[in-house]
Amino acid sequence: MINPSYLIIRVNPEIVKDVDEYFKSIIEIASLDGAELLGHVKSINVEIFEIGSIPSSSLILKWKESSEVVNKFWNSKIHQSIFNRLSLDFRENVTAFIAQGLPDEGLINEPIPTIASYDAATIQNNVSLIIEGIVSKPKVIEEYREILFEIMIEQKSYYVVLTSSEGIDVLHGKWSEDIFAISRWKSMKSVHEFWYGERYQNTAIPIRIGAGKFSVIGFS
Asked: Number of structural domains, the chain?
């Protein structure tokens, strides 16, 4: 079975003009190509959780097919026509990449929180948390994740993407992180309860200090 693929398009927060129009155009043509909209947001509405994260305007689309289908979409005449009409300054501030997703049915009997961790019929999570970064101490991060996963289960959140750099295909711009993840949450309140909760702030975060540098942003 082929895992789904996710197209992530980002526009640096310095660019405001034409973001809405570009995202709208991409959503329209991607839907005709079989893509599903996971979410989109302008930079002013991005919530920063990890200090130093960049609140880029973001668009996330999902294809049930492999990355080759997404690559073909990005390089299609219709998309390139739209993209090349944008100003040079706009295009130079765009980063686009494909991320390999987890199976739609989740991971059964695995500690990683996925849709399989719950009764899927009762879960409707529409808030996205985007996590990426450089890992300098993998064993420490493994210890940190044990606590993280437990808290995520408490909040009934789950990953749709959790991959190393090998699962990333850069289409435009630069991306040079070690890990990338998209987790889904039932509400922004749920994210706040997780992130600002006593166990995460006082137990989980201290473990990962010095073990890497991360970016964490959220939007609904």
From this structure: 1
How far is the CA of 15 from the CAs of 25, 46, 92, 187, 191, in angstroms?
Answer: 17, 14, 10, 28, 27
What is the spatial distance between Cα 180 and Cα 149, in angstroms, rounded to a whole number? 16
Beta bridge pairs of residue 94: 11
pLDDT per position as a tens digit, 151-208: 999 999 999 999 999 999 999 999 999 999 999 999 999 999 999 999 999 999 999 9
Query: pTM higher than 0.90, yes or no?
Result: yes
Q: Which domain holds residue 13?
A: 5-219
Q: Which two tokens stand for residue 80?
A: 């390139």
Sheet with 47-48, strands from edge to edge, namely 47-48, 212-219, 127-135, 179-185, 158-164
Centroid of chain to Cα 31? 19
